[in-house]
């Protein structure tokens, strides 16, 4: 038996092609499905600097809070539930917790609290959960998923008290936590924040001007090569395949043109799907202006250590992987959307 | 999945070298490591089992694991290289001072004995020479049932090209017999440069014939299983364990006044 090295881990890519003018297009619902967004990168060909309206959208992404050593039972606090969770506008994710090593927590805007625990922690907690789908021979990872808006989890209810006791006394789970509130109102979080060490962060925006960029024809290029090329541009990898460089043998796909200049902007932090929707609208307006190049690409990356994948399903990390999607928009309101997932068990919408 | 562990860092008298090893391991992302004292008894002269040095003597401040907030955990391990049946004395009191116990058998009979009889946690497969015997399914399955794991170390492969061939050949041979169960991959590193990160070792495991998930388990869950197995070795059926308390405390309580109590009548 020799090792089968030609087989690489399977990934899944869903390609969607439609037009914004078609009323049945599903872009908004698809964009909403990726809850925890780490980075948004935009590639604007033949552009030196972003227009002021585009700049203002980049700079107006909702800021988020980092709470250090938050005990997780605080997320079940009555006031916090009333003012933030029941309104359906809080995103939260544990920070600096590895999905395959540590216990991770995620709070979704629909009121769903998900905990991914290792075996010892799950047995200590004493709340019902199920084994992870990504377990191999032995069950070493468990998932506890609770709908906080459900009547059984109302404060004072049996399920609520059981989970609260579990998190308070049996398993004192404490992690750094990233929290974001929409729409841009942090007042309801102040009560929670005032009790712990917290800091507010604005998403980091970075701009890069690229010159003499070789690019493929976006309409005729096949999805995999196009996404590889987009990734190479984003990661600043040279695509010349020169003999002096042994690090990269990436080559730009065929049927290519050379752009004089291009602008690459990326925003990173805990970002909200709502802000991504606004950016898409703004980019559509930008594309309506008469100009030479007629396409724009937007790539949205999820967190590698996120608990949840597309639509709230479980995200496992065998070797490593992010969920991401790439939206290629054209001048004539048509678009191509490529949705990808790291593991082959969940399917993007 | 559990945290990443490297259960074989060779002990050396040089304190800075050991400190570098542990710091590199913490930087690479390992949460638990074990310092390995190799003991090779020879028939000629009587040798004593080395005593483990306390960790706080060897390394001052334990470094924090990269990406987490806990310091790295350092354990002690003893490896007995057996070339004769008398080399490993079961239930020897010197073995109790170590957290983990491993044997490296050199003949088929010793391998069979180690798999089925001896009370050890890890069986090391030699990677520096061609395997002197073939693996048979029966002792390997027996070891798997008992919870004993097989260890493949990769630092020799980094040092020398010939060792690389032996490592891969021996490892593939082992995987054919054990089907990827109960295997751990460890470094046996002498220097900090011979350590590799956990994800690189997962890829290396695939070269040895392990599947993706088996390979990841060999660096995390199986190692956790070894630690639990080692803890229960010192207990009675894994339920009760005894701990020696200080002698001074006993003396004090004997001296303090206790009211005279009736003795129970022996019937």
From TrEMBL, chain A:
Q: What molecular function does GO assign, one term?
A: ribonuclease P activity
Query: Which residue ranges run through the membrane?
Result: none
What highest taxon heads this organism's lineage? Answer: Eukaryota
Any single biological process term in GO:
tRNA 5'-leader removal
A GO cellular component term found in this entry reads: ribonuclease MRP complex
Renumbered to this chain, the signal peptide range is none
Locate the coiled-coil region(s) and give their ranges: none
Q: Which InterPro entries match?
A: RNase_P_Rpp40
The name of this protein is Ribonuclease P/MRP 40 subunit
Q: Which organism is it from?
A: Kryptolebias marmoratus
Q: What is the lineage of its organism?
A: Eukaryota, Metazoa, Chordata, Craniata, Vertebrata
UniProtKB/TrEMBL annotation, chain B:
Q: Which GO terms describe its cellular component?
A: nucleolar ribonuclease P complex; ribosome
Does Calcium show up as a keyword for this record? no
InterPro entries for this protein: Pol/histidinol_Pase-like, Ribosomal_uS2_CS, RNase_P_p30
> What Gene Ontology molecular-function terms does this entry list?
RNA binding; structural constituent of ribosome
Task: Tell me which stretches of the chain form a coiled coil.
Answer: none
Mind telling me which SUPFAM superfamilies this protein's record contains?
PHP domain-like
Major location, coarse class?
nucleus
Cellular location of this protein? Nucleus, Nucleolus
Q: Which domain of life is it from?
A: Eukaryota
Q: Name one GO biological process term.
A: rRNA processing
- Keywords assigned by UniProt, alphabetized: Acetylation, Nucleus, Phosphoprotein, rRNA processing, tRNA processing
Functionally, this protein is described as follows: Component of ribonuclease P, a ribonucleoprotein complex that generates mature tRNA molecules by cleaving their 5'-ends. Also a component of the MRP ribonuclease complex, which cleaves pre-rRNA sequences.
Family indicated by similarity: Belongs to the eukaryotic/archaeal RNase P protein component 3 family.
**Record's subunit section:** Component of nuclear RNase P and RNase MRP ribonucleoproteins. RNase P consists of a catalytic RNA moiety and about 10 protein subunits; POP1, POP4, POP5, POP7, RPP14, RPP21, RPP25, RPP30, RPP38 and RPP40. Within the RNase P complex, POP1, POP7 and RPP25 form the 'finger' subcomplex, POP5, RPP14, RPP40 and homodimeric RPP30 form the 'palm' subcomplex, and RPP21, POP4 and RPP38 form the 'wrist' subcomplex. All subunits of the RNase P complex interact with the catalytic RNA. Several subunits of RNase P are also part of the RNase MRP complex.
Annotated protein name in UniProt: Ribonuclease P protein subunit p30
Taxonomy of origin reads: Eukaryota, Metazoa, Chordata, Craniata, Vertebrata
């Amino acid at each position: 038996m020799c090792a089968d090295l030609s087989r690489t881990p399977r990934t899944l890519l869903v390609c969607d092609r439609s037009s914004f003018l078609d009323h049945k297009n599903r872009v908004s619902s698809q964009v909403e499905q990726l809850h925890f967004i780490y980075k948004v990168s935009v590639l604007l060909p033949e552009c030196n600097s972003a227009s002021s309206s585009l700049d203002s959208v980049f700079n107006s992404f909702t800021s988020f809070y980092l709470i250090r050593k938050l005990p997780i039972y605080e997320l079940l606090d009555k006031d916090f539930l009333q003012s933030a969770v029941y309104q359906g506008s809080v995103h939260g994710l544990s920070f600096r917790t590895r999905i395959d090593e540590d216990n991770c927590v995620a709070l979704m805007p629909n009121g769903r609290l998900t905990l991914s625990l290792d075996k010892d922690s799950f047995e200590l907690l004493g709340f019902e959960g199920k084994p992870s789908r990504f377990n191999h021979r032995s069950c070493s990872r468990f998932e506890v998923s609770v709908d906080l808006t459900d009547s059984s989890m109302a404060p004072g209810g049996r399920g609520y008290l059981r989970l609260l006791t579990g998190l308070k006394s049996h398993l004192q789970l404490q992690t750094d936590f990233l929290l974001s509130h929409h729409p841009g109102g942090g007042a309801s979080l102040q009560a929670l924040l005032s009790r712990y060490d917290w800091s507010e962060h604005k998403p980091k925006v970075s701009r890069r001007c690229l010159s003499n960029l070789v690019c493929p024809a976006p309409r005729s290029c096949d999805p995999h090569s196009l996404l590889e090329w987009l990734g190479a541009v984003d990661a600043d990898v040279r695509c010349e395949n020169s003999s002096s460089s042994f690090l990269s043998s990436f080559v730009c796909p065929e049927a290519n043109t050379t752009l004089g200049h291009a602008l690459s902007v990326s925003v990173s932090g805990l970002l909200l799907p709502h802000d991504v929707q606004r950016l898409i609208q703004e980019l559509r307006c930008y594309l309506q202006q008469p100009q030479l190049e007629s396409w724009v690409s937007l790539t949205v990356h999820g967190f590698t250590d996120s608990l949840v994948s597309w639509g709230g399903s479980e995200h496992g990390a065998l070797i490593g992987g992010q969920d991401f999607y790439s939206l290629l928009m054209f001048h004539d309101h048509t678009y191509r959307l490529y949705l990808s997932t790291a593991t082959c068990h969940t399917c993007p919408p | 999945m559990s945290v990443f562990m490297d259960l074989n860092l060779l002990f050396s008298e040089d304190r800075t070298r050991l400190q570098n090893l542990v710091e590199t391991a913490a930087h690479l992302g390992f949460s638990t490591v074990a310092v390995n004292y190799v003991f090779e008894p020879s028939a000629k002269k009587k040798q004593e089992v080395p005593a483990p040095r306390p960790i706080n003597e060897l390394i001052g401040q334990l470094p924090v694991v990269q990406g987490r907030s806990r310091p790295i955990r350092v354990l002690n391990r003893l490896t007995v290289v057996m070339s004769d049946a008398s080399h490993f004395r079961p239930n020897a009191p010197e073995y109790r001072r170590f957290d983990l116990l491993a044997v490296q058998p050199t003949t088929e009979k010793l391998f069979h004995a180690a798999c089925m009889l001896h009370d050890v946690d890890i069986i090391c497969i030699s990677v520096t020479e061609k395997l002197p015997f073939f693996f048979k399914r029966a002792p390997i399955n027996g070891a798997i049932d008992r919870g004993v794991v097989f260890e493949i170390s990769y630092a020799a492969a980094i040092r020398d090209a010939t060792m690389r061939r032996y490592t891969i050949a021996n490892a593939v041979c082992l995987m054919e017999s054990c089907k990827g169960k109960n295997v751990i991959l460890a470094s046996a590193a002498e220097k900090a440069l011979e350590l590799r990160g956990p994800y690189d070792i997962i890829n290396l495991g695939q070269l040895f014939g392990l599947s993706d998930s088996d390979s990841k388990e060999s660096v995390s869950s199986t190692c956790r299983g070894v630690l639990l197995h080692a803890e229960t070795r010192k207990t009675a059926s894994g339920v009760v364990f005894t701990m020696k308390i200080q002698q001074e405390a006993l003396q004090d309580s004997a001296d303090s006044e206790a009211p005279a109590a009736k003795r129970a009548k022996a019937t």
